[in-house]
Amino acid sequence: MSSLAQRFGIECPLVQAPMAGATTPELVAAVSQAGGLGSLGAGYAEPQAILDQAARIRALTDRPFALNLFVLPDDFVPDMAAVARARECLDALMEREGLAVRTSLPARWAPRFSEQFAALCEARPAVASFAFDLLTPVQVQELQRRDIYVVGTATTAAEARAWADRGADAVCVQGAEAGGHRGGFLHADEAPLIGLFALIPQAVAAAAACGREVPVIAAGGIMDGAGMLAAEVLGAAASQLGTAFLACPESSAAEAWKRDLLAAEDRRVATIRSFSGRAARGLRNRYVEAMEGMVDRLPAYPVLNALTAPLRRAAAAAGRADLVSEWCGQAAARVRPQPAAELVARLMHEYRLARRTLAH
Ligand SMILES: Cc1cc2nc3c(=O)[nH]c(=O)nc-3n(C[C@H](O)[C@H](O)[C@H](O)COP(=O)(O)O)c2cc1C
Prior knowledge:
- Belongs to the nitronate monooxygenase family. NMO class I subfamily.
- The structure is a single chain.
- By secondary structure, this protein is of the alpha/beta class.
- The protein folds into two domains: 1-72 and 110-248 and 339-360, TIM Barrel, CATH 3.20.20; 76-107 and 251-336, no CATH class.
- Helices cover 41% and strands 13% of the residues.
- The chain has 14 helices and eleven strands.
- The strands form two sheets. An eight-stranded parallel β-sheet has the order 1-9-8-6-5-4-3-2. Strands 7-11-10 form a three-stranded antiparallel β-sheet, with no helix packed on it.
- The protein starts with a helix and ends with a helix.
- It binds flavin mononucleotide.
- Residues 17-20, 22, 41, 43, 68, 129, 131, 153, 174, 177-180, 183, 219-222, 240-244, 327-329, 331 line the site of flavin mononucleotide.
């Protein structure tokens, strides 16, 4: 068992990725109960919902779990001319597609991070992971004082070093293959797409340069136990799998999304900015193609995300999966729909088998 697995109190170096909009307390609890580390993506959740969902996980399991947030400023002052342009374009698209829904200005563009952070501290999960930016040194200390293990997301070696220097206990490196939003923060275009094989060894070296042992968790395109072992051979202490868990019955991904994963051709899985204003990996569909010419003129995250959220909900309700964000990693078609506990057992079995095979 790796030292990280020991520290997490898990049996196998397997982390189920936080996936805001898809992870549920039921999924997280099932994974943790089965011996992995379940993570709840709480980036879109208001503080009370974070507390409620953490309580629900605790009602289902007494095993350790992780909560995950997006590190963002508390307030946003968008360019309202860009907002108006985006609304016009989105409303015209909905009209062309025969959907009655139209954009509106939300009361707030996103939950306030400082309030989410306070709720997370109160919920006191064993592990807290973060994407989109660094925490402040004070915030890192605040978590560690509560005995919460801090994991920061990095998409480059420089970001891994930045999190290590900031005092993170571990760094989750997100390879280009990964589904969902790019978690990086240092590089202007948000999307340096370093493949996981190139990233792990460089991130391990960069994190170690801070003078402490900072384990690296590998994320991106890992769908089975052999992939987990490959990441470990390259220097990772654990693997974080997202897409692999999306089609579990406990995931709240829509049925159409789950079905589309199975048919996802690797070449159709792209980095997309037009749903949320931030680069994220998912399936290219009719919406993505329709918005292609507009991408550079759209507002940034979370403004565009808030504008498109009601449209995506209405499109999903109307059975128009071709207008909905279906995030997934490059290996989506290898997803194996089954209850989360069974998937964890299968991954662990494959991982151990691969270890034995490699040893011979
Ligand atoms: C639907 C979806 C939502 C995601 N949401 C989050 C999130 O809320 N926070 C986060 O740190 N990472 C998020 N990720 C990224 C994962 O942490 C991880 O990097 C990714 O799932 C790994 O690649 P894979 O999907 O190929 O396994 C998300 C990924 C997916 C597929």
